[in-house]
Amino acid sequence: MDFISQRVQSLAASQTLAMSQKSSELRARGVDVINLSVGEPDFPTPQHIKDAAVAAIADNFTFYTPVPGYLSLRRAIADKLARENGLSYAPEQIVVSTGAKQALCNVILSTVNPGDEVIIPTPAWVSYVEMVKLAEGVTVEVPAGIDTDFKITPAQLEAAITPRTRMLLMCSPSNPTGSVYTPEELRALVDVLARHPQVIVMADEIYEHINYTGSFTSLGSFAEIADRTVIINGVSKAYAMTGWRIGYCAAPLAIAKACTKLQGQYTSGASSIAQKAAEAAYTGPQDCVAEMRAAFRRRRDLVVDLASKIPGFRVNEPQGAFYLFPEVSAVLGRHTPDGRLIATSGDLAMYLLEDAHVATVDGAAFCAPGYIRFSYATSDDNLRAAMERIAAAVAALR
Ligand code: PMP
Ligand code: GLU
Question: Is the CB of 125 under 6 A from ligand 1?
Fold first, then answer.
């Protein structure tokens, strides 16, 4: 007897988390695996943020929290949006959730009706398509490969919009490609969106601070679409707080209220202690953010240099996030030394894990077969060793 709903049966498991799990299992069996699969900062959470969490426990922030989050945290987020992005949001327009992941899912479930189309430029982060599936929406992929630095054009966007389009889901800096849209490129997309007032724009800005271009333009800053733009952000990446699980949406009031209603029925407010830690992240010193960015940038340079020397790998120079997304189709169709065919990027990722002991993620998980993703949020030594192992494993293919 199969007790599992159609809804969950039709979902794919998160491949980023699955590859990371596989790599931990191999490591538990004593294999020296280098894990470049899951994307999370390798730094510990800064001390002043951890201190705020300890103080929160001592001060008895141990009760249920308001469903959209503590007012003090929502004020701190509103101040951040004003200070860093020049945006004006009232605390009532902000809903704090258990990670940006829940914030994204709340917004999709709150706005997408069955059959509604959601435009997702691809390559795209693993969970978007599955969240749209949960809402019984229809994903419309708009592909952009390495030749266009993984960015879609205004003409592609225009062609993808129909009367059934409910949402465009943008991610810049991008997971998995690291691409960052320039302000001019965003402006050109906004010009298209201005002609289609039925389209909600969801801007996943979780990698805002891991951005090497020197500045960041929020999609929330374009007046023509501001009343239908939802910003997603959180503390996971900027403040090395992935385990604390705090993210948020900043949205038109009706959407924020809908998210609060939904969240009130299935998780309630996010963790009290983590919220107090997040408040310290937003109100405290910001040098930690710049220090981590500088480290990621140095590693970006290292990994681009090493990966571009692997014959058959094509790489771009990512301008943000901490991922490299090489195009690997030139090495497909070859055989491993023991005779297995490497037909797909998924086969390649498994071969790299099992034979080279480097965990990566198949590009197919990001709607982009023919690519693989590395997270370079790890030490320089790990990156050097991983690239050496990958280069040797690829050279051994026949
Ligand atoms: N959006 C993107 C693009 C991400 O890479 C991640 C991290 N997996 C998230 C959202 C979710 O972040 P959080 O850990 O805050 O749930
Ligand atoms: N953002 C990370 C990744 O893409 C975290 C894992 C996840 O939540 O998917 O690897």
Answer: yes
